[in-house]
Amino acid sequence: DERLAGRSGGIWTEVRKSGSARTPQQLRSVKAPMRCVILSIVLTLGLARLGASQVTLKITQPGGATGQAKVSQHIASDGGKLVELNMDLVVGGRRITVHQQSKFDRHGAPLRKVLDLNDEATHRSRQVIVSFDPAGANLVFERGGGRRPRSVTLAPSAPRENASEFWFVRDKPAPGAKVRCYVFDLDSLEWVLTDTTFVGKRPVKIGVKTIVCNHVSVKYPNKTVEADLDDSGLPVRVVSPDTKMERAAG
User: Whole-angstrom Cα distance, residue 161 to residue 181?
Assistant: First the structure.
């Protein structure tokens, strides 16, 4: 599910090594601590209540980035979903802003994704636009006024409809419910197979407040991300091996 992403390599290397990764191949090949930030948010933050809603999360990484993420989500009249993510990060004294937008149809299949990254210290910006068709994903990289198209295919028989996008938003899964599908990862710029499971209810303490949450686990080929969501599908806490996001106490 698109609220909680967390994979290795990819465009996030640009945050730590400005100007060193310039081609799509290089963008996928360099690893950096920033790699988990997007996946830990996007694959679990896709769960939102009907209508518009927003949540603010504090981001921390041991020896890495700090900052906050704001996620807003909206259910469209056709039953689809729009997710917008805005992150404000401080990495090594540099301020990085990230904007991501994802659209899904009523079955949870991706329709369009846009990623914008801006480094205020270097005044550099990058953008990736992804559209989807039956053959897979179609990417356009924009940087410095240049555009580079690229396609990443997915077998027609491979599942891409992600029903967990609508868990606790429109659908109420029973504990033990599972979804296996391919998700297009904006970090690695590849399709990745994910297994999402609703584990059940558990209490989570935020400051002095305890919230009974829905515990969702998302397994990627190289890691597992754990998310605790409220009954509206909004994240309370999201934890991956090297990133923690927690709702601001209030």
Answer: 7
Alpha carbons within 13 angstroms on the beta-carbon side of residue 39 total: 37
Distance CA 108, CA 104 (A): 5
pLDDT at 3: 53
Mean pLDDT of each 10-residue bin along the chain, 250 residues long? 45 41 39 43 42 77 80 87 89 87 96 92 86 97 80 96 91 96 91 97 92 95 91 87 83
| Contacts of residue 231, Cβ cutoff 8 Å, sequence gap at least 6 | 168, 214
**DSSP tag of 4:** -
Which residue in the block uniquely carries the two structure tokens 């790699």?
35
Write down the residue that tokens 């081609």 correspond to: 23
Tell me the backbone φ, ψ of residue 162, rounded to 5 degrees.
-110, 95
Q: Which residue has the tokens 């599972």?
A: 178
Report the distance separating Cα 89 and Cα 67, nearest Å: 4
114 contacts 122 by C-beta, under 8 angstroms: no
Q: What is the distance between the alpha carbons of residues 58 and 15, in angstroms, rounded to a whole number? A: 18
